[in-house]
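User: Please run a holo structure prediction.
Assistant: Happy to. Please share the sequence and the ligand.
User: Here you go; the ligand is 4'-deoxy-4'-aminopyridoxal-5'-phosphate.
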Amino acid sequence: MIYETGAAVAGRGSDLLGDVGGEALARQGAGRSPASFGAAGQSTPLLEKLARSYWTEPADYAGVGQSPTSFGAAGQSPALMDYTDRSGELSRRASAAQPTLGGISVESIRSDFPILSERVGGYPLIFLDNAATTQRPNCVIERISRYYGREHSNVHRGAHELASRATDAYESARSAVARFIGAEDAGSIIFVRGATEGINLVANSFARPTLRPGDEIILTQLEHHANIVPWQMIASERGARLVAAPVDDCGQIILSEYEKLFNPRTRFASIAHVSNALGTVAPVGEMIAIAHRRGVPVCVDGAQSAAHMPVDVRAMDADFYVFSGHKACAPTGIGAVYGKPELLERGVPYQGGGNMIEDVTLERTRYQPPPRRYEAGTGNIAGAAGLAEALEYLTRIGMREIEKYEDALMLRLVSALADIPGLRVIGGLDARRVCAVSFVMAGRTPEEIGRRLNEYGIAVRAGHHCAQPCLRRFGLEETVRPSISFYNTFNEIDRLADALRVI
Ligand code: PMP
């Protein structure tokens, strides 16, 4: 059976969404014929291969280890199998098998996040907007409260007990960040509000002073606006220009074209580790090596990688690496810039004020050594304490475990999406994706899909994702973008797919 009738879809909806969800889906799906859901889906041999690679993953992931055909008639292709049948069966297996990350069950991880028990419109919340921001576990929420309840003061400035508690919290957070991303030491970590402020800092303090008219800065077509606009601002001021490495139809950077962009006028390169719009992963190690052979420093925008894979800034040889805490289970308004120590020594602060100075007269200022010379004013001390707590929480689960589990979730997500008639996944189906995937659906605007999914308690993002040049490369202005984290489940992904079939 390729497609069920509306009534059958409705029945399955009850199974998957619980009573309230099932009834609502039943009303939506009732009486709809398969044809009313759009043109044929994107079932391809590639997708079948992809689905199979998932099914043969180690058996500690739910539903894994089952051959695709075990869910349907013998010999039936997984891509052509009735999706609702399969997702219903898989969801039951998923809940029975209890996936674990490094021995910790996903259920127990979920219980660390109070917001995941919320209901939206009568449905259990399914939070698939993790590329925009993640949720916070109890330990981070409690850490902020403990900081304000017992430790708060300004840092570095007072001889009193609370000043040392606050300073300890702030400075030990710097060490926690350094450990998390494999930096030399705490001295190479600058606290900022997030990736946006981090890139502005790198552009202004390290690239801008080196720019002359006619110089060039290399980006890629995959960049978030935060990794375009700051470079445009300094380039237009200095008479320099931006050039962007193209991506292919699968959303992969064309390395040979990237390499050709380098010339004697190239001063700097800044590249996203993971595309926030497509989820595709840049070969940052190779890209940095290519740049370094020409003496060009590279900034890596790690906003979408830091919370999803082990990151080692020294192994990748990044000159700068920036990320936002709020995308890694930490509070908003805190993030970090890693800079190689010798580069931090050479930069020119672009914000002045308290904290960053050693001595000031009315004529001149002597700055603190790095990293403090780049941190003018009072920082987000509670945020830094929360960031350290979040990174320690992720480390306890294990970044390798998180990466492995999210890879399996993502394969399930892409495979489920590609099976939906009328749905186009942006980029190659077999491209590795981290956190996010974008799609459009025939006859529906992304905004409408986002709104309808919200009616089922499913949170996804719809829009341009602050990556307009990237979407325009694929002829689009907007997409729908579900994005995962390690607390999402196979069951949630199946429920998203079910909802997409009936909205
Ligand atoms: N770069 C990328 C790749 C991102 O996804 C984002 C956030 N969507 C940013 C930069 C900016 O991050 P923030 O808004 O936290 O500064």
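Residues 65-128+399-502 form a domain with the Aspartate Aminotransferase, domain 1 fold (CATH 3.90.1150.10).
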